Structures are given as C-alpha cells and as structure tokens.
C-alpha cells in the first residue's frame, strides 16, 4: 500500500472512529469505505464477516447484494471469505466460472454474476475471526496489486475496529456484533426447520429462504424470524462465552 494511499485511508478510518457512536454504524461505514478504496476504477461490493466460534455472519455490507453473496456462502460452510478467516491468508478468485475450489457455492451465486472475489482476513487478537469480502462482476479484477492494497487497508481497519470494540465494550459489550450473531442464529434455526419440513439439504433450504426474501422484498433474517416464530414462542438466542 503506497504511502499516500495509506495516509488517506488512515485519515478516513480516523474520521469513522470519531463520527460513529456505535459499532454497527462504524462497521457499515467501514464496508462502504472498503468498497470505495478498491473500487476506484471498477465497481466493487464489500461485506464484513465476523465469526464467533463456528457461527459466521455479515455484520455490515456496502450493499444488499454483497450481504446476499456472503450469506449464501455461510449456507455451504466454506468459501473465499470463510477460508480467509480460517487460514489467515487472502483468497482471490479470478473467475468463479472456472475456479474449482468451491463449486457448489459458485454455482449457487452464478445468477448474481459476480465472478471475481477476494477474502481478506482482519486480525482481531482473539476476539473472533473477521474478513473483508470483495465482489466484482469483471473476472480478474483482483490482482496482486489489488491484494497488496487491500491487505494494507485491512491491517489499519483491524486496528481501528479493535479500538472501537474496546470503547464499545466499556459501554455495552459489543452489542452490535452480538445483535448480528443473534440474527445469524435465527437464520440457522430457520434453515434447520426448512430442512426438516422439506427433507432437503442445507443449501436447498437456504435457497428457499433466498427465494422467499426476493419474492416478499424482505431481508433474509426477517423471513427467518417469521419461520422460527411460527414454531416457537421464544426468540432464538446465541450464547456467548467470554
């Protein structure tokens, strides 16, 4: 990451830290900033994945499209961003149509026509795993130069996020991330309900959620909440251990 880019990114991250009072809003603005930094010459979407234990969720995104691409990946339990978190290494997909690493996931998102992907890990010092997930329609968008830029930014972003979390924890124990994880728990329970009712696979159950979301113009977590509410009077809970 060139010095001028590093200084500009640092200044923008500092502005985000100073102007956002909640973790939620900081993360949303971080996703937007990440998208702009990598998308100077081509449109790039960005999602921010947070994984606590074995549960992953998109805590922020630059668009609903990025969030959907992330959520479909979680349904398969593996993919570029999840692999980046697991290995601590950046993952680049030049063209999802010819990449053979995650064929089921790539087939499931083919209609969205985002063929280039990149997962960049965020190091959070034992606070769970996280990654920036980038998507572009043009194959070959993410090069070694783009990777270096993204990794340099991710290093700064991780430090900024840790500081925001530290301040937030003193006030409210990272409520934004907890709320997002609660939402993911509801989605997973809804998938289990659909699998039981329809005798289908996890991927097929997630496809049912996605179709319902598109048909009713509601977010996937809202559809999941309705499904879970239909079989239980108690809301889904995520149990955290410090």
UniProtKB/TrEMBL annotation:
InterPro entries: ANTAR, CheY-like_superfamily, GAF, GAF-like_dom_sf, GAF_ANTAR, WH-like_DNA-bd_sf. It holds the Pfam family GAF_2. Keywords: Kinase, Transcription, Transcription regulation, Transferase. Transmembrane segments: none annotated. PROSITE patterns: ANTAR. SUPFAM superfamilies: CheY-like, GAF domain-like. Residues 167-228 form the ANTAR domain. It comes from the Bacteria. GO terms for molecular function: kinase activity; RNA binding. This is Histidine kinase.
């Amino acid at each position: 990451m060139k010095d001028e880019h590093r200084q500009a990114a640092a200044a923008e991250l500092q502005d985000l830290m100073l102007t956002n009072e909640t973790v939620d809003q900081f993360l949303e603005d971080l996703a937007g900033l990440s998208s702009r930094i990598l998308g100077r010459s081509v449109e790039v979407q960005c999602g921010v994945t947070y994984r606590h234990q074995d549960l992953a969720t998109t805590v922020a995104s630059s668009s609903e499209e990025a969030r959907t691409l992330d959520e479909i990946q979680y349904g398969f339990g593996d993919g570029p961003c999840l692999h980046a978190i697991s290995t601590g290494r950046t993952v680049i997909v030049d063209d999802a149509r010819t990449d053979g690493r995650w064929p089921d996931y790539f087939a499931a998102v083919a209609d969205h026509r985002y063929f280039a992907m990149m997962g960049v890990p965020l190091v959070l010092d034992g606070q769970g795993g996280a990654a920036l997930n980038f998507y572009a329609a043009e194959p070959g968008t993410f090069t070694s130069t783009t990777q270096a830029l993204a990794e340099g930014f991710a290093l700064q972003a991780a430090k900024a996020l840790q500081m925001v979390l530290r301040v937030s924890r003193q006030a409210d124990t990272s409520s934004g991330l907890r709320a997002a994880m609660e939402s993911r728990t509801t989605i997973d329970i809804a998938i289990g309900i659909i699998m039981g009712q329809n005798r289908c696979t996890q991927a097929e159950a997630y496809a049912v959620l996605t179709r319902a979301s598109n048909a009713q113009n509601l977010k996937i977590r809202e559809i999941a909440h309705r499904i879970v509410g239909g079989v239980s009077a108690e809301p889904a809970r995520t149990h955290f251990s410090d």
